[in-house]
Amino acid sequence: MFAEIQADPSRCLLLTTHQLDEAEAVCDRISIMVNGEIVCLGSAGHLSRKFGNHYQIDLNATAREHVGVIRNWFTNKYPRAVPG
């Protein structure tokens, strides 16, 4: 099926996944969406070169006093992490 779709440049197939390795296996271009908006688009190689050398972790604390505790834990566990 993928070969038939790829053989005709007027065809397009939209796949959704949370697994980048699945997208890399079958897609020429990959987009990443955040809150319903495309924030980056490119080949798997392009996205890996541009964004693949770091992680971003977003945390939501239920109480303000938890923020310091969480930040201290991350700083101790991952000393090279850069807090935002």
UniProtKB/TrEMBL annotation:
It comes from the Eukaryota. GO terms for molecular function: ABC-type transporter activity; lipid transporter activity. InterPro entries: ABCA, P-loop_NTPase. GO terms for cellular component: membrane. Keywords: Repeat, Transport. This is ABC transporter family G domain-containing protein. It comes from Beta vulgaris subsp. vulgaris.
